[in-house]
UniProtKB/TrEMBL annotation:
Residues 30-166 form the TerD domain. It comes from the Bacteria. This is Tellurium resistance. It comes from Streptomyces misionensis. Residues 170-202 are annotated as: Disordered. InterPro entries: Stress/Tellurium_Resist, Tellurite_resistance_TerA, TerD. CDD domains: TerD_like. Belongs to the CAPAB/TerDEXZ family.
């Protein structure tokens, strides 16, 4: 699984395994499960770890740690039918001891059937660096069933950051002296359906620039359709775009079509860096906002269109990362596309008293016959612009 993605899991007893490579110079780590009601633990009893190995309900148990060759593996058992109705999510966190997770190789979380051993979910592309506590994944209720989400969100202030985020004290990840928890300082923020919004000001992003990156890759078995200009068969050309409305009411679009690349230092204070045809993680499409003029931006809708090489987003995996010059990066992955969509609303950035709030949209739209993707997203979000055909 990739960060931010989710998958259904059987609503039965499950085996959750957190593994990592151990050895000289590699920090130790400890795993905990937090049972959340309305986004918080109700008491210390809702935090299960190796020194408090069982939840009072019996729904979650920590079975200890063992060595498996070069790996150290912690296991937890989760009996989903026994989870209390008030519990909406079970979050699995891991805290490093004497280092950061950038020093811990081969970190993963895996959910499986304890009887058959069949793997229901596995997340091992965590990409950690300075974090000392990581939210690896979560089980959450969805339409009468359960799903697992690969989270990968980290904190650089250890168990205290986790405690501040979910309530309780610093023993949310491991036993520690109880003391007031300082505000959480996430090293990055992953937006999800259950937590779709974040304030840039609260992350420290109040000046400088905000860089929005889109990269993508074809899933195994994907075969793109359509013409290609440069590159091999199956190459897909996605275009990152932005609708904007300024504080004075002016509206417009930044996109490669019509060479409407915008400007960073004059209205609309948004600039499209170029037109990428590869989707490579180190490149992709990039859009930059000038946060020094954030009070002049009323709202910005970042969206993506399929320009050529595919008939929809189905079979593609795309990831969006917003990197403020100051503050924590914000990222999210797009869900699987199950409709014939050629345009997807990614993120809505709105003014809130001079602060900019980023909301994950990840909304696939299906244009009507004869209606352009740009006009489709305009109608969906009520921008009210007049559109003419364009080329790039």
């Amino acid at each position: 699984m990739l960060k931010g993605s989710n998958t259904p899991v059987p609503a039965t007893a499950l085996h959750v395994e957190v593994g990592r490579r151990h050895g000289p110079g590699v920090p130790g780590a400890s795993t905990s499960a937090l049972l959340l009601a309305a986004g918080k633990v109700r008491s210390a009893a809702d935090v299960v770890h190796r020194d408090r190995p069982a939840h009072p309900s019996g729904a979650v148990r920590h079975a200890g740690e063992r060595a498996r060759g070069p790996l150290a593996v912690e296991t937890l058992s989760v009996d989903l039918p026994r989870v209390e109705a008030a519990i909406e999510r079970i979050v699995f966190a891991v805290s490093a001891d004497g280092g950061t997770f950038g020093q811990v190789p081969d970190l993963y979380i895996e959910v499986s059937d304890p009887v058959t051993g069949r793997v229901a979910a596995r997340f091992d592309e965590v990409g950690a660096s300075v974090e000392t506590t990581l939210l690896l994944g979560e089980l959450y209720r969805r339409q009468g069933g359960w799903k697992f989400r690969a989270v990968g969100q980290g904190y650089d202030n250890g168990p205290e950051g986790l405690a501040a985020a979910f309530g309780g004290t610093a023993d949310a990840s491991r036993p520690a002296a109880g003391r007031p928890a300082p505000p959480a300082r996430p090293s990055r923020v992953t937006l999800t359906k259950s937590a779709p919004s974040v304030s840039l000001a609260k992350q420290g992003g109040t000046s400088g620039v905000l860089r929005v990156n889109l990269n993508w890759q074809a899933r195994q078995g994907f075969s793109g359709r359509g013409s290609h200009r440069g590159g091999g068969p199956g190459d897909v050309d996605l275009d990152l775009c932005a609708l904007y409305e300024l504080a004075d009411g002016r509206k417009g679009v930044v996109q490669a079509l019509g060479n409407s690349f915008g400007s960073l230092h004059r209205p609309p204070y948004i600039h499209l860096d170029g037109d990428d045809r590869t989707g490579a993680a180190e490149g992709g499409e990039n859009l930059t906002l000038n946060l020094d003029h954030r009070r002049e931006l009323r709202r910005v809708l970042v969206f993506v269109t399929v320009y050529e090489g595919a008939t929809s987003f189905a079979g593609l995996h795309a990831t969006v990362t917003l990197r403020p010059q100051h503050g924590a990066p914000v990222d999210f992955a797009l869900d699987e596309c199950t409709v014939p969509s050629t345009v997807c609303a990614l993120a809505l950035i709105t003014d809130d008293g001079g602060d900019l709030v980023v909301r994950r949209e990840a909304r696939y739209l299906v244009p009507e016959r004869g209606v352009s993707p740009q006009r489709t997203v305009d109608r969906a979000y009520g921008w009210g612009m007049n559109w003419t055909p364009g080329r790039k």
